[in-house]
Design goal:
The complex is a heterodimer of chains A (146) and B (153). With 146 residues, chain A is mostly beta strands. Chain A is built from no helices and eleven strands. Chain A is elongated, with a radius of gyration of 16 Å. Chain B is mostly beta strands. In chain B, the strands form three sheets. In chain B, strands 2, 4, 5, 6, 7 and 12 form a six-stranded antiparallel beta sheet that branches. In chain B, strands 1, 3, 8, 11 and 13 form a five-stranded antiparallel beta sheet that branches. Chain B is globular. Classes of the chains: A mainly beta (146), B mainly beta (153). The interface between A and B is large, with 35 and 40 residues.
């Protein structure tokens, strides 16, 4: 069956999307969450954790320009912290909401906790999961209409 | 609390969606990504797989769709399937080599084209769009599939 010409995403109307993600433990230190194929604003990032996590783990969100996404265990070349680290623990209050780290270049509006993510960027979760098995759920609200 | 009457999706205005999917599996070779409850067009796919140990075991991946009645269990390829892409190979070196089609840096690609038109990027209503691996994914740890789809033909 013949197909259709792909529509360049710049012609898409504005996006208002969730990106939901489950991160599997253990030892996944870097994990891709989404790729910005157009400029987007990230309004919020929430993290949920299953209650069987048996010790504190931490997670933050970082950006890496294409094509600098690494394998899952090594640091990212050109990595920029987008958010401050979140400490996840059994018995904690969830969801935890990531706050901006104030790193220049990607932060658009600190007062409103908005993150400007330019086209060609990988949003990556960076977690410390050493020795911990568990599932984390990451939920990102983002849009391309400014 | 009373709800509202569900709206048949045929009355939805056009959909322009991004779907992200985790491909963190080790042995399954068939996984459903979404079901087209109306006719959809796939405009773009990004795929990224992390691998630190699979260089000796290349993995072929491709996308396709089947109608609902042809949907198989997760580890058996459907008997009848319409492939929308050809195989591409993950060599375990941190990037994809796509056997056919346009390659962008970092493992993104679009569909195989014929005279400027993809051979098949229309997902008929009542079909399940899936990712299939031709070999065991034993060495692959986690990855990302991100898809741009729309319902406006």
């Amino acid at each position: 069956m013949a197909g259709q010409l792909p529509l360049d995403v710049r012609y898409y109307p504005g996006d208002f999307q969730y990106t939901s993600w489950t991160i599997h433990g253990p030892n996944h230190n870097k994990y891709p969450v989404m790729f910005t194929d157009r400029n987007v604003v990230i309004d919020s990032i929430g993290v949920f954790v299953e209650d069987s996590v048996n010790q504190n783990i931490t997670i933050k969100f970082v950006a890496a320009p294409q094509p600098n996404v690494p394998d899952y265990t090594t640091p990212i070349s050109g990595q920029v912290d987008l958010t401050s680290g979140l400490a996840l623990a059994t018995g904690g209050t969830y969801p935890l909401w990531a706050t901006t780290a104030g790193t220049a270049g990607f932060t658009m509006n600190l007062a409103n906790n908005l993150l400007m993510a330019p086209q060609g960027l990988w949003l990556v979760s960076s977690g410390h999961f050493a020795g911990v098995a568990g599932n984390l759920h990451v939920q990102v609200r983002w849009r391309s209409t400014f | 609390m009373p709800g509202q009457i569900p709206l048949d999706t045929k009355y939805y205005p056009s959909d322009f969606l991004v779907l992200s999917h985790d491909i963190a599996y080790t042995s399954a070779n068939f996984i459903a990504l979404f079901r087209a409850d109306r006719t959809m067009i796939v405009d773009e796919i990004f795929i990224r797989v992390y691998d630190s140990s699979n260089s000796a075991n290349p993995t072929n991946l491709k996308f396709g769709y089947v109608t609902d009645s042809q949907l198989a269990d997760y580890n058996s390829p459907p008997a009848t399937q319409v492939f929308t892409t050809t195989n591409f190979t993950y060599p375990g070196s941190g990037s994809f080599t796509i056997t056919t089609g346009r390659t962008n840096s970092g493992g993104s690609f679009d569909f195989v084209k014929s005279n400027g038109v993809p051979t098949s990027n229309i997902i008929p209503e009542g079909s399940v769009f899936f990712l299939i691996s031709q070999t065991n994914l034993g060495g692959i740890e986690t990855g990302l599939v991100q898809i741009r789809v729309r319902s406006q033909l």
